[in-house]
Amino acid sequence: MATNVQVVDFLPQNIELIALSSNAKFKNGLIFISIPFLKIEDSVVVLYEVKTTGTGLIRNTAALITLDQTDANSANNESTVVINPYDNNSPLGLSKELIYLYRVGERLFDLSFNFKITNTSPKGLRNLQLSDDLSKTFGSSVSINDILLSSENDSKIVLNPNYSGFPPNTNLLIESLSYINPNDTLNIKLGFKIFLEDSLKNIFYNSARIEISNDPNTFDISTDGQNPDPDNNGKTSDNNTPTLINLKQPKLNPIAVTLSVIDTTLLAYNTFKVRYMVLLKNQTNSTLTNLIISDSLSKFLPNGMPFYISEKPLVSTTSSIKTNPNFNGSSDTYLTLPTSTIKPSAQDTLIFGLTFNFNSFLGPYHNQVRASVKDSSDNTYFDVSNNGPLTLSWLQDTTTFYINPSTFPVETLISVPGGFSPNDDGINDELNIELLKNVAIDKFVVYNRYGAKIHEVNNISQNTETISWNGKNRDTNSLVPEGTYYYAIYINNSNKPILGFITIKK
Length: 506
Prior knowledge:
Elements: E1 2-10, E2 15-20, E3 25-27, E4 30-38, E5 48-52, E6 58-66, E7 78-83, E8 92-105, E9 108-119, E10 125-126, E11 128-131, H1 134-138, E12 143-151, E13 179-180, E14 185-195, E15 203-206, E16 209-212, E17 215-221, E18 223-224, E19 243-246, E20 255-268, E21 271-282, E22 289-294, H2 297-300, E23 307-314, E24 347-357, E25 365-367, E26 370-374, E27 380-384, E28 386-387, E29 399-401, E30 414-415, E31 419-420, E32 431-435, E33 441-447, E34 453-458, E35 466-469, E36 483-491, E37 498-504
């Protein structure tokens, strides 16, 4: 006798449950069947009614999950039925192969597929359209990002830049610009990141569709693998096995990248330099080629903040990475050239620096880099950096730093212009001394060339960002003559004032 038997039916997304018998429960796309005890030769029947909501073959799998006893034969613990067989005489054929599946976070995965499209007709076919509705496979609540589409046949097809995997953007091609020649083959690759936070499922089946948009009789539903006609009977329409996606069997991402802040320097008032280190790791036993590291600094820095690359990308003399001397973080975001490679199981580093005017914004400043590579089969893989020195391809978090004025020499926190012209022309009529936040000033004093005090400001609030002087003598309230004047800025808790001179010219 078997006790506490648990069976689960993984309903595909393109099957909708209509009715279910009382001895089972339905939750999150799963039918749960709990059997407290089951005698030898006994059976339990669960009845439910479903309707299909998609085209092509649909695989529905039920599996024995657990029981109290040891199961001597686990080979018969799953059962699959296929729904929606159909036939047509279309010359089009389509296969869809899962190239790689990598876990890059908690319920976050990288996936890549290859579509192979064949035309067995002696004539070319125009208005070609390939569609793949990922919401029917994974559900509408998942998040799909970083979609990458590529093709080896760019002269024949035009990829749809608006493809999202969700209605209404489920078409991968611009049909009016896409065609396939007689007896020809096309290959298209699709990659994306998927986040399944609210889904408990790990087994999914996916089908795509190829068609001629103005001919409803010329189409095919994809079959799993590399060959649209795996039984070689000359008919692709009888091969429509959905592509299996098993999230329980992910691989390690071939490339991993991290980003760290290794040094920060306040160069002068309002001018700051930060140095970054990029650490890369090849997590395979083969050389990875076409290594491209990118950093869109203009997107990470606050809008409009001026910056420049003060330290060009640098690698060691033994590195196989080729740096890009034209990297500027805005119009050219590539730190490396496509000729870069990384050796099997190797780690490599790249260092670069930027300088920017922070305009009193002390942070936070966030940044991430992206690395992509190709393997020997020309498959493309990518990773987005995590913070710190450890390469964790399953984690993507931003590298963040703040500007802390308390750690810098106080004279670098104060900006005093060299002079001004108080002539009421509306241009540079006042002396404006800029202070960074948290700079505590006791007083500001101006002297003439004879050492007489002509201006003084006391009791300055710590939140003050600007100290101004209109050029008037404090005693006479009239403008002082042109010439050179001397100032002293007394810092809170400091015995040594900041001294300097300014020029007044009217």
